Amino acid sequence: MPRLAQQSILYQRGKLLPRVPRFEEPFGLESPCGGPVASEPDIAYARAQSLRITANVVCEESSRPMELCYDFVSPPRIVFGWGRRREVGGLARSLGQRAFIVHGSRTLERAGHLAELSDQLRQAGVEPIELTRISREPLVEDVDRAAQHLRVGLRAETDLIVAIGGGAAIDLGKALAAMATNTEGDSVRDYLEGVGRGLALTARPLPVLAMPTTAGTGSEATKNAVISNHEPAFKKSLRSLQMVPRIALVDPELGVTAPPEVTAASGMDTVTQLIESYLSRKAQPIPQALCVQGLRLAFPAVREAVHDGTSRSAREAMSHAALLSGLALANSGLGMAHGVAAALGVHCNIPHGLACAVMLPVTLQTNRAPCSAEMADLARLCGIEAATTDAAIEDFIMQIRDINAEIGIPARLSELGVRRDQVSAIVAGSRGNSMSGNPVDVSDEQLSSILEGML
Ligand SMILES: [Zn+2]
Question: Superfamily for 259-452?
Answer without folding.
Answer: Dehydroquinate synthase-like - alpha domain (1.20.1090.10)
